[in-house]
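Give me structure tokens for this 185-residue protein.
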Amino acid sequence: MERNEDLIVGGYQFATVADAETARQDAKRVKNLENNLDYKAPQNVLAIYNKALENKVFLTPIGFAYLLQIQDHLKRCGVPESKINPIPLNVTFSNKTEANRSIRESVAARKPKVEFKGRFITSVCFNILLIFVIVSMFLISFKSDVPNIINYRRAIVDEYSEWEQELTEREQAVREAEKSLGITP
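Here you go.
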């Protein structure tokens, strides 16, 4: 079981011993940089600051506080703010605050409002066009002479009735020809 003193580093109380140990490592890195860094050369300080950000040297609030001190020093030395990169935080704080109404309102206020009226009208017009196309397809299918899944029964019945009518007409013609020739069946 961890003791409360094992979790406290630099005025911060960490949730786990591993986080506290990481903070102790950050404190050692801060002490080492303070002892060896020449603050009189702002370009060197800026280069070390950028390298620390790039390599993610500091992972805890102890290191972030030191990076913030370096930022302030660089600003006082006249380095333009556009050259000083912001400190990236690779942690989320929203998991505990998403239920907070004021934070939700703040996030919603920062999001751009999207106008849906134009999209809605476009969607309705497109849907009407699609309905027109579908109805046209059905009408073409019903009016077509080519058998398809919709009118195949009617087409087949019509075809057989035509054949039957032709056959009946031919039989009638043959009988008349036989009568005129005097051939009786």
